[in-house]
Specification:
elongated, five-stranded antiparallel beta sheet, mainly beta, Immunoglobulin-like
Length: 365
């Protein structure tokens, strides 16, 4: 028999998880040629955009500058610059004709990464400048960045992180000591069912499609997907992704959860309902049945992603990742870029962590 304190603890944990408020991803603001946003933990990011004036041809644009600052007392400060490094090994960063930084170029997602005090010095130059030029070892231009709006974007970070008026602010500097806000990242408790392979038959899926809102949106090659969600006693569940229209680079899916109750008198077979999300995927919007874009399911972790591109370049759109908690999908991270202006660095607006509920082990007699 299980100890009563253990059982009470489990129910208290489940109740606390059920009482969690719906996720509220942070806002993304645009100031001139910069976008900026923060997540629920207070970490913020400012990203440069292709200039509104004189930037339509992309001639001097090879990628954005991204300024990242954490909210806590650790104060991790980084500047990333994305571009195709090719065979270049060093760079020079020039703001309004003045050399502000130099260093090595490495192969990878971020050929240039500036951290710590060096990053703060570069940010100080960016705040006061009008244009940043990145050059290679032979003085060849790599990218040209407009700094219009950078000061307002970094001031926004000062305000959101409660740094304004303190000695840690980037723009709104003062003499007060900085006291980090206590922004806790939520922990989602996942009630994982036992592994099972039972899923609906093809005939069940055909019937579901015929009665779904996607029936008239299906054309060309369509591919519905079915994944087991596990079993608990005689109940089985499965995730069904119904193909629900597609474009040149976005493929929509309507997620359903099917349930089957196995017993000798069962005659109804599988039943289906739209999957429940604690916050709807942004592509479908709140108040509607959920729609996932370019969905990807991780069967081992039971997480699902939605990645909707605003255009084929992938420089704008929104993305969400959810974990299945045994009853609904809960948001564990979200990012977005509302401006279609060359920023392949999307801004994180929500973070959560999750852990599995421990299975009860019967006490020894």
């Amino acid at each position: 028999m299980l100890p009563m304190t253990f059982i009470a603890g489990i129910f208290a944990t489940i109740a606390a998880a059920a009482a969690m408020p719906a996720p509220q991803p942070g806002e993304i603001r645009t100031f001139g040629d910069w976008a900026v946003g923060c997540d629920n933990g207070g970490n913020c990011q400012a990203v440069s955009l292709v200039p509104e004036v004189g930037g339509a041809d992309y001639d001097d644009w090879e990628g954005p500058v991204s300024i990242i600052r954490t909210a806590g007392s650790d104060d991790i400060f980084k500047i990333h610059i994305s571009f195709e490094a090719k065979d270049m090994d060093r760079y020079k960063m020039i703001v309004d004709g003045r050399l502000v930084d130099t260093g090595p170029i490495v192969q990878g997602d971020y050929p240039i990464e500036i951290v710590g005090e060096d990053a703060k010095k570069v940010a100080a130059a960016i705040v006061k400048g009008k244009q940043l030029v990145l050059q290679g070892p032979a003085d060849e231009n790599i990218t040209r960045i407009s700094l219009a709006g950078s000061s307002a974007a970094l001031r926004y970070i000062d305000q959101k992180q409660q740094r304004a008026g303190t000695d840690t602010a980037l723009v709104a500097r003062g003499s007060r000591a900085f006291k980090p806000a206590n922004n806790k990242i939520p922990t989602i408790m996942v009630d994982r069912w036992d592994a099972a392979e039972l899923v609906p038959e093809t005939s069940d899926i055909i019937t579901l499609v015929e009665n779904s809102k996607c029936k008239d949106e299906r054309y060309g090659v369509v591919e519905d997907q079915v994944f087991p969600l596990g079993k608990r006693e005689n109940r089985f569940r499965a995730l069904v992704l119904i193909s629900c229209g597609s474009g040149a680079y976005n493929f929509s899916s309507a997620p359903y959860v099917g349930e089957y109750i196995a017993n000798e008198r069962a005659t109804s077979g599988w039943t289906f309902a739209p999957a429940n999300f604690d916050r709807q995927p942004s592509w479908g919007g709140e108040g509607t049945d959920p729609v996932l874009v370019n969905a990807s399911w991780d069967e081992q972790d039971q997480t699902i992603s939605s990645y909707g591109k605003g255009r084929g370049l992938g420089d704008c759109g929104s993305a969400e990742n959810y974990v299945w908690d045994g009853d609904k999908f809960r948001l564990i991270d979200a990012s977005a870029m509302p401006e279609c202006r060359g920023a392949y660095e999307w801004i994180t607006t929500w973070r959560a962590q999750y852990r599995k509920l421990e299975k009860a082990v019967p006490a020894a007699d």
